[in-house]
Amino acid sequence: MKKIYVFLAVIIFCGACSSGKKAYESGNYYEAVMQAVQRLRQNPNHNKSQETLRVSYPLAVETLEQEARNRLSSNAPYKYKMVLRSYQAINRMNEEIRRAPGALSVVPNPVNYSSKIPEMKQLAAEESYAAGLDALARDTRVDAKNAYLLFRDAQEFVPGYKDVASKLDESLFKATLKVVVDQMPVPTMYDISASFFQDKIEEYLHSQYQSNPFVKFYTAEEAESEKLPYVDQYLRIMFDDFAVGETHTEKRIETFSRDSVVVGEVSLDDGSKQKVYNTVSAKMTTWRKEVISRGLVRMEVFDANSKAVLSHNKFPGEFVWFSEWGNFNGDERALDDNQLKVCQLNEIPPPPPQTMFVEFTRPIYNQIVPAINNFYRNY
Fold this sequence. Notes:
- The structure is a single chain.
- This protein is an alpha/beta fold.
- It folds into three domains: 99 residues; 55 residues; 196 residues.
- Helix 2 runs antiparallel to helix 3.
- The two termini are 55 Å apart.
- The chain is built from twelve helices and five strands.
- It is 50% helix and 26% strand.
């Protein structure tokens, strides 16, 4: 077994080594360098990896430098960001080679562009910031999303660049879809509260929702306290219908028998004992009481301006509580263990209506959450 593991390890290692050569042959010189260096970190004297690194490294540097020169001489948008990426790729090769003695023996003086990185970061921050201002000035939600991403780039290139922090807040606010959630209360004629269900929905939307960072949910009170200048959508959740405590009781009478049961013994003429076998039976009566609670919740999304319905769904839920008990007449040996257990049980009262209301809302919650995620994922 040990030999098999060693053999498999050799196959995997050799396959990994050849992948650097494949990257080189396909013209992906940077990847060829990185894979060869990784192999040489594991085996500093691996000939194939040394050869791959020897031929691919100068081509990788030349390719990245040429890309940087081409972009610098062009009028392409975000050219400094792309040049920065080229320089950073060259530096990553430098760092990886210096961390692998086997690679450093092949490339003793890897190229380093660290001196040019600060200038390029400054230029990249400037171009992203300027592009973000242009996008923000177009004053649409889509442009605001783009502006936020551009300002975020600028902040990553040069932390604290100009007033980028405030521009991030401004663009994020404009890019964010503002949704006010309206959860309708259960009619007061019922002595039941939907607060457990509604609190779970509110908790999810406020602290667990992560499908889209450009969507934010508010309660009506939060929208008023934060003085939102506008609302984009209303998300309304209400109970269309529910019933708690629908009761059904079923009575069942069955006769069970079992063969070859010892019912006694007799004495024989020679003084020995002999068991007597017979068939035993019992009549068992069982009751099953079911209390069913079910409901239907409607979820609608409205456009705040046009009042158009953007989404309309209904989600059903059901919870069935039951109790079983029974008794029997006859020989208990005719019954199995489960039947005997049922006969030892007594009828128990169902849980209160509020508990059953909570239970049937659990499957509804598990349907509403994915529906909200799916609807808002692409906003």
